[in-house]
Specification:
Blueprint: H1 2-5, E1 10-14, H2 21-34, E2 38-42, H3 66-69, E3 72-73, H4 76-81, H5 86-94, H6 133-137, E4 143-145, E5 148-150, H7 153-156
Parallel strand pairs: 1-2
Antiparallel strand pairs: 3-5, 4-5
Length: 160
Amino acid sequence: MLRYLRPREALVVLDNCEHLAPACALLAHRLLTGCPRLLLLVTSREPLGIGGEAQFPVPPLPTPPTDAAMVELADKAQLFARPRHPYTRMLLDAIPDIHMSGRSRTPVQGEVPNPLNPPTGCSFHPRCPHANARCKQERPALLRFGGALIACHAVEEGRI
């Protein structure tokens, strides 16, 4: 990395360094001393303690209401073996197959909704292949289905 970066003007971002602060501090020190044209931006909840470090405290983002983002809550074995919510299914289908079993990976389709202007009804309806008019108008409640909590009109109506 040093050989590659040494002659270049670059910005390197090290994110969430609090989990590996000593290793990140060593890496940052080596990068800064070995690459004179390098700018380094580090995010961490803890200072790294290296020379020239400037700290800019940033408050945490607000936590959304508990029910705002919850689409499915289940035991982890049940969630991975038998996901019920369409978005849970799509996310699991998008995970690359590291075991090389031949299972195809299916990227999640559609656009991520704008959090500043979320869609009406179910926030997932623009990306959901099972969405109907009710999904576009009415936000689903988190209801119990077979040992899991699921917020989905299609599941509630027995369409999936």
